[in-house]
Each structure stands twice: as structure tokens, then as C-alpha cells.
């Protein structure tokens, strides 16, 4: 390395060191402000509400709008989520339940939303995830609700019908599937383990590249990765988190058939989220069993100009051939137009349950 190059690098590195020292000081100033917020809440009897999803969404959107680059908005969002996560943990680490084991896409969604300072609580089933929050063993739950290629997650939707938990946020996770194995030669792969949904998402790739390998469905992609780490001639289809946790090389990356494969997760808690300026409201409704009943349920949204972003039917569990409708609408339940629509809907629906209003996912 030439002397001129060393001098040039030394100057820039010294500048970086100075910026790092300033960042360190500013981050600790921010943490002290977060502590003051906690103290003020405690004085006013709000100590249990340390996490405010609407406030977090507002901060992240403001930072994205103000971002001059060269860092992309995605990087800015990641960095500041981690800062907010660390600051929250000074008051109380948030317990977050999700469908385990560790290494699943649900873990990735939980970490994406709550940061690495959260206390992660993997559960054996989606039912157990709900119960952890309902019994106050966890503050929040992260549950999958729909996938862009495989559709709705029925168990989550069924549990929402009977649960007292509120939707207070959402996470949208881009799903990249990888073929993981300790084998270095694809020709030696005789078995491929994965969750049934992941096998379906990679069906055409497997037909093309591993047509003779046996496909075996297991409870989770993390479980598949664990098996691949222990058995010869075995591969797993799983995400990056599982590859890292089980130290498995990637024989092939991004093998999903649909390039825009995305899963949406809901954040569930015991409280509503306040208005953030860009929100959704989710609800469940049912219509009387008569001609034109669904049309009548949709009229309040037409009358008030409220936009529906999702409408899906599910069998009602209390009666044969009866259905309930899961609906997402744009706006917060406190918005005047949304409130008017919901008030009118309440007079028309045989059953109406507001699942929650919450900020639209910030990428």
C-alpha cells in the first residue's frame, strides 16, 4: 500500500471515528429520552403501555421521507427499528410469541418488527402463540395471516374469530427459499424436507432440478433444517434464519417459483393502536342468510367512500353452510368516514367484530 493511499485512507478513517463517537453520544441521548418517556408514563399510570406501534410507524415514515441517501430507506428502517428496540428494552424487554422453533420465517418477521432486543418466545402451534398473549406470558404475538401465492392461513383466521386479542400492527416479509444441505453435490440429495407450504412454493424448481428426490413435509422449515444438519443425503428448503442457526450451506438460493412471494403477519396484543396517519382496520362480519345480504353489508363502505383492501369468506364454526367475512379497510376506526361506515354496518350485520386498527406496514 502506497504512502499516498495510506494518508488518504487515514484521513477518511479519522472522520469515520469522529462520526462514530458522535453517533454513540447521540444514541445514548436518545436512550435517556426514552427513559424519560417511561418515567412520565409511569407517573400517569401508563407504565404498561411502553410500546406504541402508531408512534413507531410515524417515526419511521418521517425518517424515510427525510432520508437524503445514499443509504436506502430499507436500511434506515432496519437501523432505527433496532435503535427503538434497544431503547424499549431499557424499560422492559418485550416478550414476543411466534410460531417456532427458532429459525422460522415467523422468527424473522418478529425480529423485523420488534428488533433483536425483544425477548423471543417460540411456540409449538399458532394456538399456543395466541394463548401466550392471552395469558399474559407474552406482550405480543406475531402470526402469519396470508401468503401471496398460497392464500390465507386458515388457523390464524379461525382463532381471530374467538380471541379477545387486538390487531395492533402488521409485518410484510419477502419470502426467499433456499436449498440447504451439508452435501456439496445435488446428485447426492435423496430427500428434501420442508413445511408443506414451502414445498408447494418451490414445486416447479424441485421438478426441474431434483425430480427424483423424495419430498417430505414436516412441521416447520426450521425442523427441516435441523434434519438436514443431522442426516446424509438430505436437504431442507428454508430461509436465511434457518441456514444461519443450523450452519447449513446454501446449495441454491431464491428457489421459490413466484419471484414476489410474500407473507403478511399480524401483530396481536391486548390494546388498540392509535391513528398513525396511514392505517388499516380489520373486522369480521356476517350477513343474515337471505338474498342480497352481502351486497347490503358492502353498502356502508360505498356510501362513505371507504376502500376495501381485502374481503375473504370463511365457514362459520357455529352453523353448517354459514359464513363469516374477513375484511380489511383503509383508515383508522377513529377516522370520521371509517367511523360512519362502521356505525352503519353495525345496523346491518348479523355479527360484527372489530379486530383492530393499526399502522400499515413500513418497509
TrEMBL record:
Reactions performed catalytically: chorismate = prephenate; prephenate + H(+) = 3-phenylpyruvate + CO2 + H2O
EC number: 4.2.1.51, 5.4.99.5
Residue span(s) of domain Prephenate dehydratase: 95-270
Subcellular location: Cytoplasm
A single GO cellular-component term on record: cytoplasm
SUPFAM superfamilies: ACT-like (SSF55021), Chorismate mutase II (SSF48600), Periplasmic binding protein-like II (SSF53850)
A GO molecular-function annotation: prephenate dehydratase activity
Role, per record: Catalyzes the Claisen rearrangement of chorismate to prephenate and the decarboxylation/dehydration of prephenate to phenylpyruvate.
GO annotation, biological process: chorismate metabolic process; L-phenylalanine biosynthetic process
Keywords: Amino-acid biosynthesis, Aromatic amino acid biosynthesis, Cytoplasm, Isomerase, Lyase, Multifunctional enzyme, Phenylalanine biosynthesis
Segments forming domain Chorismate mutase: 3-95
Organism: Dechloromonas denitrificans
Residue(s) at site: Essential for prephenate dehydratase activity: 263
Full protein name: Bifunctional chorismate mutase/prephenate dehydratase
ACT domain boundaries: 282-359
Pathway: Amino-acid biosynthesis; L-phenylalanine biosynthesis; phenylpyruvate from prephenate: step 1/1; Metabolic intermediate biosynthesis; prephenate biosynthesis; prephenate from chorismate: step 1/1
InterPro entries named in the record: ACT-like_dom_sf, ACT_dom, Chor_mutase/pphenate_deHydtase, Chorismate_II_sf, CM_dom_sf, CM_II_prokaryot, G/b/e-P-prot_chorismate_mutase, Preph_deHydtase
Amino acid at each position: 500500500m502506497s504512502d499516498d493511499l495510506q494518508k488518504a485512507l487515514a484521513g477518511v478513517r479519522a472522520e469515520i471515528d469522529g462520526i462514530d463517537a458522535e453517533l454513540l453520544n447521540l444514541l445514548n441521548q436518545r436512550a435517556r429520552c426514552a427513559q424519560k418517556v417511561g418515567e412520565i408514563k409511569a407517573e400517569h399510570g401508563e407504565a404498561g403501555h411502553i410500546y406504541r406501534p402508531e408512534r413507531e410507524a410515524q417515526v419511521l415514515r418521517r425518517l424515510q421521507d427525510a432520508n437524503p441517501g445514499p443509504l436506502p430507506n430499507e436500511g434506515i428502517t432496519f437501523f432505527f427499528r433496532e435503535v427503538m428496540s434497544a431503547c424499549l428494552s431499557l424499560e422492559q424487554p418485550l416478550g414476543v410469541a411466534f410460531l417456532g422453533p427458532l429459525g422460522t420465517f415467523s422468527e424473522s418477521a418478529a425480529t423485523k418488527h420488534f428488533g433483536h432486543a425483544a425477548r423471543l418466545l417460540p411456540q409449538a402451534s399458532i394456538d399456543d402463540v395466541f394463548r401466550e398473549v392471552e395469558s399474559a406470558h407474552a406482550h405480543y404475538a406475531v402470526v402469519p395471516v396470508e401468503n401471496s401465492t398460497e392464500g390465507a392461513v386458515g388457523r390464524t383466521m379461525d382463532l381471530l374469530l374467538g380471541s379477545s386479542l387486538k390487531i395492533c400492527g402488521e409485518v410484510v416479509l419477502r419470502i426467499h427459499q433456499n436449498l440447504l444441505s451439508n452435501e456439496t453435490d445435488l446428485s447426492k440429495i435423496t430427500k428434501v424436507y420442508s413445511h408443506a407450504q414451502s414445498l408447494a412454493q418451490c414445486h416447479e424448481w424441485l421438478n426441474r432440478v431434483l425430480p427424483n428426490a423424495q419430498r417430505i413435509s414436516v412441521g416447520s422449515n426450521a425442523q427441516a433444517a435441523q434434519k438436514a444438519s443431522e442426516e446424509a443425503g438430505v436437504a431442507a428448503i428454508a430461509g436465511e434464519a434457518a441456514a444461519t442457526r443450523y450452519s447449513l450451506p446454501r446449495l441454491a438460493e431464491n428457489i421459490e417459483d413466484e419471484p414476489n412471494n410474500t407473507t403478511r403477519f399480524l401483530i396481536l396484543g391486548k390494546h388498540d393502536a392509535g391513528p398513525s396517519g396511514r392505517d388499516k382496520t380489520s373486522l369480521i362480519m356476517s350477513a343474515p342468510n337471505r338474498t342480497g345480504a352481502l351486497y347490503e353489508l358492502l353498502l356502508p363502505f360505498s356510501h362513505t367512500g371507504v376502500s376495501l383492501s381485502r374481503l375473504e369468506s370463511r365457514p362459520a364454526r357455529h352453523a353448517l353452510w354459514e359464513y363469516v367475512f374477513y375484511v380489511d379497510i383503509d383508515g383508522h376506526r377513529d377516522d370520521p368516514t371509517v367511523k360512519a361506515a362502521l356505525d352503519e354496518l353495525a345496523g346491518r350485520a348479523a355479527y360484527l367484530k372489530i379486530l383492530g386498527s393499526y399502522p400499515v406496514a413500513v418497509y
